[in-house]
Amino acid sequence: MEGEKLDAIIFGATGFTGQIVVGDAIDILKDFKWGIAGRNELKLKTLLEDMGQKMQIDLSYIPVVVANVNDQISIETMAQKCKIVINCCGPYQVFGEVVVKACINAGTHHVDLSGEPQFFNGMQLKYDDLAQEKGSYVISNCAFESIPCELGVLYAEKNFPGVINSIELHAVIKPNYQDTSSKAILNYGTWESLICSMQYARELLTLERKLNKEEMPKLTPKLWMRPYPHRTETLSEYFAPFPITDRTVVQRSQRLFYMREQKRPIQFEMYMGFRSFFLALIFPLLLILGVIMAQMSFTRKLLLKYPHTFSRGLMTHQGPTETNRKAAEFSYVVNAKGWPEGTPQTDAPNKVVMVRVSGKDPCYGVTSSCLLTSAKVILQEHQIMPGKGGVLPPGFAFAPTQLLKEMEMCKSGLKFEILKL
């Protein structure tokens, strides 16, 4: 296969999430030529050997590429060997830019599972024009953050018989512990990315001001974030504001729909569910405390050294057990309000459509399926995606494609339902 360009390369294949992605790629990318990459050739080959024995198949045909983020030439060489890089190597704020830049310069597409707003906003500011010139699509957040959320908005709009003014999304994640030896739901790599994102939180406002220079329409009625714990129809949990990655990504997609297609943007807010009023009440305070601690070197080191303590066991170096990981489930209830077709948009919104997006193993199974399926769709449908390339959020990038349909068909995919029409 020397000299022949691969369709895809999974970079960071030996990490916790990377290994899951490699296992799922055997099915999702079965019609494509793909390889794996990382800094240690022996570990990469051992991964394929161990996975092959476990699955009782021969994986020795999968090419192995040595690439290290500290060796720019190796990253550039990797980018030149494929049509798309599936990047599983975070934190992206630290390790992501060298891969994005190499992909764009090579005219190669790039997807990642970043949940770091500073990273993807920064990449858009720096490289969007160059990516368009080179014909490279760079799509971040192609994971549990933020594909289910973005597709939930698109699904609600697809089934709304008119114009949507606003959407409130209420999210519930249930661990469903089968193995009581551990209550971890996330591994250390995710925790490290979260702390990194908190560390650079102050940069986010600066980046958003630079990105969002264009005047947006004055939408009425205005959707305000509810700062207090509340409950909602069809769900028993108490909900608190969740103004993190998904909200930023959806709002960026809606801004691009307006700027490039003159489409009325949908106002969007997101809330996270908790089993008690007290937990919903203190959650925003804990987020603020985490951001403060991440600013100072000493307390940041404590957060990174003791993830089990500071997350109350939800995040550990070992990560969740496979049994607990696969038993976890999530549900997003998307409540869309607007006007029926033909109704003046100056009147109060009088139409409500409620849809649900759900699935199992959200943090890793859904993440892996979202990432691989996003790459698959880019390979198959990049000709119908917006423009000729660019650094784009997934909702805007994949709106014309079959990503929603593809995600419904995945083994660890998504279920879309209409609750109220």
UniProtKB/TrEMBL annotation:
Keywords from the UniProt entry: Membrane, Transmembrane, Transmembrane helix
Annotated transmembrane regions: 272-294
GO cellular component: lipid droplet; mitochondrion; plasma membrane
Domain of life: Eukaryota
Keyword Membrane: yes
Any single GO BP term: glycolipid biosynthetic process
Nucleotide-binding keyword on record: no
Domain Saccharopine dehydrogenase NADP binding: 9-139
A Pfam family assignment: Sacchrp_dh_NADP
Family in the record: Belongs to the saccharopine dehydrogenase family.
Name of the protein in its database record: Saccharopine dehydrogenase NADP binding domain-containing protein
